[in-house]
Design goal:
Elements lengths: L1 H13 L11 H7 L1 H21 L7 H23 L7 H9 L1 H11 L7 H11 L2
Helix pairs in contact: 2-3, 3-4, 3-7, 4-6, 4-7
């Protein structure tokens, strides 16, 4: 019995603890995950522009922030669409698959209202819908 107890303790002592995973900087993470970083940055920019549209602290008028928010939302939708359907093909099956994607609808939504008169509900809808 003494032999088995001494073997168990020696096995536990020989295996060193696993080292923690190496820390990665923010820039290193963003460079290794470019699409996800782009999505994150465009979403943050959309929220900032929407905030400045509602509360015009800086700038000459809210129309510029309205357009910037919709352009940023369109960029977010395009990046999400690129994630889901990466290979472009010019055939009917691809177009059907493209139209079935929600990101394509959000992209069209942003492009349709881009040159319209600023409507508050448009920014509220695009912020809620696209961030799901």
């Amino acid at each position: 019995m003494a032999d088995t107890n001494s073997n168990n303790t020696s096995d536990e002592q020989t295996s060193p603890p696993s080292p923690p995973p190496p820390q990665q900087s923010v820039m290193g993470f963003m460079l290794s995950n470019k699409v996800e970083a782009g999505l994150w940055l465009t979403r943050i920019f959309t929220v900032i522009c929407t905030f400045f549209f509602f509360i015009p602290i800086i700038g000459s008028g809210p129309h510029g922030f309205y357009q910037r928010a919709l352009i940023s939302n369109a960029a977010t939708s395009a990046l999400r669409l690129h994630q889901r359907i990466p290979n472009f093909q010019l055939n009917m099956a691809f177009l059907k698959m493209l139209v079935l994607e929600d990101s394509c609808h959000y992209l069209f939504f942003s492009l349709i209202f881009l040159n319209s008169y600023p409507i508050t509900s448009i920014l509220c809808c695009q912020s809620v819908l696209n961030n799901n």
